[in-house]
Write a structure and sequence with these properties.
318 residues, mainly beta, Lipocalin, 8-stranded antiparallel barrel, 18 strands, 14% helix, 43% strand
C-alpha cells in the first residue's frame, strides 16, 4: 500500500514537472525591439515617434524594463496564455505575446506597439526598424549615481573626501560609437563636468561589451584613450558603471575621482544588501520619490534641503 502511494506521488510530481517545463521563462526572456507602431489602421515609423528607439527587456522571475526614447522604466511582466501584462509602478500595459512577437498598448498611449524578439519576424510585409544592438540596449539612456573626490590639491583641496550625486547620459550608435555626458548636482547637462567620447567593443561574454574612452573633456583637461578603466560588475551587481581612482590634472588643481552609476529607474537594493554605505547621498530623500512619481531624470538637480557636506567613499568596503 505504501509502495502504491509512493508511486502515485512520483507520477503526479513527474506530470507537474513536465507541465511546468512545457512553458518556461527561458523561451520568453530577451530583448524585444519595437518594430512597428499602429493607430486606427495607420502605421507609423518607429524612429519618427521615438528617435532613440523603444525597447522592451523581459528577464527571469517576472522582471522587466521598458526604454522609451531613451528613458528607462522598471517593472514586472506576466503572461496568461497569450495575454501579456506589463506593470510599471502600478500602470498596466496590456497586449499579447506569441512566437517572439509582443503586441502592446502602453498605459496612456493608444498606439499599438509591436515588439520583436531577436530572430522573430512579422508575417506581414511591412517596413520595420533595424534591431537595436545589445550594447545600445545596455548603455543608451540616463544614469544616476554619485562621484567622489580624493587626494585633491590646489583649488580643489577643500573638496577632498567629498562626494556629489551625479548624472550621465549615454548615446551610442549601432557601431558602438558615441558619447557620455556627465554632470553633478552643482552643474547641469548644458554645462557638464565632462563630455567623453566613447567606444563600446562587443564582448561574447557580456551584453554590455567593453566601454573605452577615446577622447573628450573633463573640466579643463583632455581625456585620452585608455584613461578610464570602467567596470560593469562592481559590488556584486549588474547594470553598473564603476570607475575607480581616475586622475584629473588641471591648470590649478589635481585629484583622484571615482564614479558609480546605474540606469535611471533602477533601484539599488542589491548593492545596499552587501554594501550599505555605497548609495548616493540623496537616494532615499530625492531619487526614490522621483521614481515613485514617474519623473524622468532632470537636466539639473533641484532639492530644497541640499547640503554641502558629503560622506567619504570608504574604499575598504569594496
Amino acid at each position: 500500500m505504501k509502495t502504491t502511494r509512493f508511486l502515485c506521488f512520483i507520477l503526479i510530481f513527474s506530470l507537474l514537472f513536465l507541465s511546468s517545463c512545457a512553458f518556461s521563462d527561458d523561451e520568453l526572456v530577451g530583448t524585444y525591439t519595437c518594430a512597428r507602431l499602429e493607430l486606427d489602421g495607420e502605421q507609423f515609423h518607429v524612429l519618427d515617434v521615438y528617435p532613440n528607439g523603444c525597447v522592451l527587456q523581459l528577464s527571469q522571475w517576472g522582471q522587466a524594463w521598458l526604454s522609451v526614447n531613451g528613458d528607462r522604466f522598471y517593472g514586472r511582466w506576466e503572461l496568461e496564455g497569450n495575454d501579456f501584462i506589463l506593470d510599471i509602478n502600478g500602470e498596466l500595459s496590456t497586449g499579447s505575446l506569441e512566437n517572439g512577437i509582443c503586441k502592446l498598448r502602453l498605459s496612456g498611449n493608444e498606439m499599438e506597439h509591436v515588439f520583436l524578439r531577436e530572430g522573430a519576424s512579422l508575417p506581414e510585409n511591412v517596413a520595420t526598424v533595424q534591431p537595436i544592438t545589445a550594447q545600445q540596449v545596455f548603455w543608451n539612456g540616463d544614469w544616476y549615481g554619485y562621484w567622489t573626490i580624493e587626494n585633491a590639491s590646489g583649488n580643489w583641496q577643500d573638496q577632498s573626501g567629498q562626494s556629489f550625486d551625479c548624472f550621465a547620459r549615454f548615446e551610442i550608435d549601432s557601431n558602438g560609437l558615441g558619447k557620455m555626458t556627465f554632470w553633478d548636482e552643482m552643474q547641469d547637462s548644458f554645462h557638464p563636468v565632462a563630455v567623453a567620447q566613447i567606444a563600446v567593443i562587443p564582448d561574447d561574454n557580456s551584453d554590455c561589451g567593453s566601454l573605452q574612452i577615446t577622447g573628450g573633456d573633463f573640466l579643463d583637461s583632455k581625456l585620452t584613450q585608455g584613461q578610464w578603466d570602467v567596470k560593469t560588475d562592481g559590488f556584486d551587481a549588474d547594470s553598473v558603471f564603476y570607475l575607480q581612482n581616475a586622475v584629473y590634472t588641471g591648470t590649478d588643481a589635481s585629484f583622484e575621482y571615482s564614479i558609480i552609476l546605474r540606469p535611471w529607474g533602477r533601484t539599488w537594493e542589491d548593492i545596499e544588501a552587501t554594501h550599505p554605505d555605497i548609495l548616493p547621498y540623496f537616494y532615499y530623500d530625492w531619487y526614490l520619490p522621483a521614481l515613485a512619481s514617474g519623473e524622468r531624470m532632470p537636466d539639473s538637480f533641484e532639492y530644497s534641503d541640499k547640503s554641502v557636506i558629503r560622506y567619504t567613499w570608504n574604499e575598504d568596503e569594496q
